[in-house]
Amino acid sequence: YIILLVFYSLCVYTMFVIARTAEITGAKDFAGQWGKTIGQRTSWVPVAVVVLVCFGCNLAYSCFFADIFSGVMPAFGLRLSRANCLLAFTLFPLLPLCLLKNLSALSHSSTFALFAVLYTTAVIVVR
Question: CB count, 10 Å around CB of 27?
């Protein structure tokens, strides 16, 4: 629980600092905040970091599900290699989600996912 509390505290503090920086600088995006506090020449740095983190998360997500699907698909009569599962999962459900300009369409499934995680957490705690 201590590690969870530490990471929770770091996340809360980070959001507080971002909000405070937005209030002080008047900039609503990372590049604008960076440009006003560090300098305009390097305002691409926070954007690049966000892009790299998102790319890494998508890659990890794809690899995780490719491993799962390559083990599960034979039960459905499909013998797919891990590479084919990785390609299929990346192209079909993941790529269209990454290309959405407005994420409000995902609000209902996100709410359901939140309640599913809370339910799972409750079951684990009760057990």
Answer: 17
Whether the Cβ atoms of residue 34 and residue 43 lie closer than 8 Å to each other? yes
SS3 at position 29: coil
Residue 84 CB burial class (10 angstroms; 0-12, 13-18, ≥19): middle
Question: From CA 61, how far away is CA 89, in angstroms rounded?
Answer: 10
Mean pLDDT of 41-54: 95
Residues near 121 by Cβ (< 8 Å), separated by ≥ 6? none
Token code pair at residue 90: 């990346």
pLDDT in tens, 50-66: 999 999 998 998 999 99
Look at residues 64, 75, 70 and name the one whose alpha carbon lies nearest to residue 85. Answer: 70
Q: What is the pTM of this model?
A: 0.70
pLDDT at 118 over 90: yes
Give me the pLDDT at residue 23, please. 96
The Cα 29–Cα 45 span in angstroms is: 12
